[in-house]
Amino acid sequence: MAQIVAGPVYVVGDNVDTDQIIPAEYLNLVPTIPEEYRKLGSYAFAGLAGGHPPFVTDGDQTRYRIVVGGKNFGCGSSREHAPIALGAAGAKAVVAESYARIFFRNCVATGELYPVESPARLVGEFATGDEAVLDLDASTLENRRTGKTFSLRALGEARPVIDAGGLFNYARQTGMIAARREDERSA
Question: Which of 30, 106, 121, 123 could form a disulfide with 80 if both were Cys (CB 3.0 to 4.6 A apart)?
Fold first, then answer.
């Protein structure tokens, strides 16, 4: 399936940890409850240090579809709430030089975000608000302001899992686990 993510980028630096992405005080929100899922999105990047514009400016949604980060994105505590908060806010992908392994795995497991690695440092190539086009099939990120296109690492076997909406949906779609029956969903 062709996958293009287009829209404004939000630029952060190195070592953005999960406390900056979603502070611990909001971890009592349950992502499987729709109103709490939306509320979780409203707190995305609430712990980010000053100098950055607000990530969420319209209630519980962001205008930024792509986060551009540096090295070690998603380090710190292991919390699936971090990629869920970004996805609930409306972000679709993070493009960074490297990821904390647990954040990368949580992106894949939840299906909330595409965590794409860049061999080049991109935080100096983009400014927050720049329009960008992420082509997951071609593994490229284009900065529409500068006209530059950057090669990225392909997501490989993680991509179909994220495309499916996460690990459990992928397992159901591929027959690894039985599909949930309607009567089990309402219990």
Answer: 106
Q: What is the pTM of this model?
A: 0.91
> In whole angstroms, what is the distance from residue 92 CA to residue 133 CA?
12
Q: How far is C-alpha 105 from the geometric centre of its chain's CA atoms?
A: 11
Contact indicator for 142, 133 with CB cutoff of 8 Å:
yes
Q: How far apart are CA 22 and CA 86, in angstroms?
A: 9
- Convert the pLDDT of each residue in 117-152 to its tens digit: 999 999 999 999 999 999 999 999 999 999 999 999
| Helices vs. strands in the chain: H and E counts, helices first | 7, 7
Domains of the chain: 4-156 (3.20.19.10)
Residue position matching structure tokens 């593994």? 139
For residue 141, list its beta bridge partners: 134, 150
Return d(Cα 69, Cα 97) in angstroms, integer.
Answer: 7
Q: How far apart are CA 181 and CA 84, in angstroms?
A: 25
